[in-house]
Amino acid sequence: MNTRTAATGLLLAATLTACSGSSSSSDKPADASSTGPVTGIKTITGSKPTAATAWTAIHAAVPASKFTLTVTEANDGNHLLGRPHQYTSAMKFSDARIKASDVEGSEKDDVSRGGGIEVFANHSDAQARADYIQAIVKASPIFAEYDYVSGNVVIRISHYLSPTQAAGYKTAAKKLG
């Protein structure tokens, strides 16, 4: 392996860490009273969702998902929360269908364990984030994940889920925008 290839590999690894983020604390979504299924998903459509309201809709559609972390300025491993053109709210979740052995060694709030929701001020910023992540995936498929953009929301889903399993998240994401 030459020096340039090694440097590129290190850069991609550092970028993946920035995309996935991690922290050690977990709490309930800051602006949701419940993490369980709720009725009234239509209240999300037509208004800009937060990560917590998006989570409520996602969890209602995909019961295998389980809330793990509300991203705050203090625990944002990406250091993007509230920055210009970055997410305004975010959260992480796990998916019970992912084998523990597949994610052994990863942080408990890593996107590979289920996924994440990132909410932006507008669709353009959300699409730019998804495009950025997919450019990394294209350069190095080891970082693969499913990314769904709906309005100003990016739903990031673990590649450990099959396309059929991930489709539930895609369907739920369509209801957000």
Uncertain residue segments: 1-45
- State the helicity in percent bands: 25-40%
Largest sheet: 5 strands, antiparallel
Note the total helix count.
Answer: 4
- Spell out the helices and strands N to C: HHEEEHEEH
User: Order of strands across the biggest sheet?
Assistant: 1-2-3-5-4
Radius of gyration: 16 Å
The total strand number stands at 5
Kindly report how far apart the N and C termini lie.
45 Å
Sum up the overall morphology in one term.
globular
Percent of residues in beta strands: 15-25%
Mean pLDDT level: 80
Structural class per helix/strand content? alpha+beta
- What is the number of independent domains? 1
How is this fold's topology laid out?
Blueprint: H1 3-20, H2 51-61, E1 65-70, E2 89-95, E3 114-119, H3 123-139, E4 145-150, E5 153-158, H4 163-174
Give me a quick take on this structure.
With 177 residues, the chain is of the alpha+beta class.
Structural features:
177 residues, alpha+beta, five-stranded antiparallel sheet, 4 helices, globular, disordered N terminus
What does this structure look like?
The protein has 177 residues and is α+β, with helices and mostly antiparallel strands. It has one domain (3-174). 33% of the residues lie in helices and 18% in strands. The protein has helices at 3-20, 51-61, 123-139, 163-174, and strands at 65-70, 89-95, 114-119, 145-150, 153-158. A five-stranded antiparallel sheet has the order 1-2-3-5-4, with helices on both faces. Strand 4 and strand 5 (153-158) form a beta hairpin. The longest helix has 18 residues, at 3-20. The termini are far apart.
